[in-house]
Amino acid sequence: MATTFSPASHIRSIVYAANPPKTRSSLPDFQNVGSWSASKNYVKLHVAARGFSWKPIVVKQLWKKRQVGIYICKLIGVLRCATIEEIEKEKSLIEKDVKERMEKTIENVKTSFNSIRTGRANPAILDKVEVEYYGTPVILKSIAQISTPDSSSLLVQPYDKSSLKAIEKALVASDLGMTPNNDGEVIRLTLPQLTSERRKELSKVVSKQAEEGKVAIRNIRRDAIKSYEKLEKEKKLSEDNVKDLSSDLQKVTDEYMKKIDSIFKQKEKDLLTV
Fold first, then answer.
1. Which of 104, 155, 157, 191 is the most buried (most CB within 10 A)?
2. Ranges for the Ribosome recycling factor domain (predicted)?
3. Residues 133-146: tens digit of each pLDDT
4. pLDDT in tens, 41-92
5. Cα separation of 185 and 132, whole Å?
């Protein structure tokens, strides 16, 4: 998704005047700083000053040395500058945040899907079961080992046998539709066969979770667009820059939407396969 400035890209009003001098004998009273354009070996700063007719300042062979901002500031004395490196860093942070949040969304969707059982036993279906353990709610898998002795049953072996009753109570209260069998050592769970009607109900639940994941992806895209627009308002990016970045962002968004569609279709297939 990373986008870099092309050799002839423009950064409008990236440099601006502050506390201009009041006398003509000093520096001119800047009313506007128009724009500067970047190419491989030079920078051109266009300045409009009241009472003065200045030609563009051409600073050659300084761009690669990262001295342009310093040179201009020394020459003019009243400018605040934002370097290409600073802008690229801000863009990179936005892009990194987008990728990290979208990846987290995919993981959350997968976790939600795993908690919905299909026809086969899967320890992940107990991931969301909470147990009241010494007055504190904890996730079941943090206090017990969960295994699958066969394709239609689960075995829950607590690390602390005194928690068996609490675990049994939590499993009964869950909406998993399984009756726990507590033999004083471990708890066995037998998965009943899913009816056709139940499979369709679970398919609707999975579809809703997939849509929630897509909404989260869209919200991440929206936040990134706002961040780019903020940089545009700060005159660090041009309107064209924002359009290009938004286009790249949409491609990434579409990519993650396809990932959600893919894992949804697989889960739906597992649910509907008898």
1. 191
2. 110-272
3. 998 999 999 999 99
4. 333 343 444 443 434 444 444 444 444 444 444 444 444 455 788 888 888 9
5. 19
Token pair 């802008």 in the structure block, residue = 87
Q: What are the b/e assignments for 236-259, b being 16+ CB within 10 Å?
A: bbbeebbebbeeebeebbeebbeb
Beta bridge partners of 80: 16
pTM of the model: 0.58
Type of residue found at 152 = S
Residue owning tokens 């002795």: 149
CA-CA distance, 83 to 229, in Å (whole number)? Answer: 18
State the amino acid at position 78 in one-letter form.
Answer: V
Confidence of residue 39 (pLDDT cuts 50, 70, 90): very low
* CB 89 within 8 Å of CB 76: no
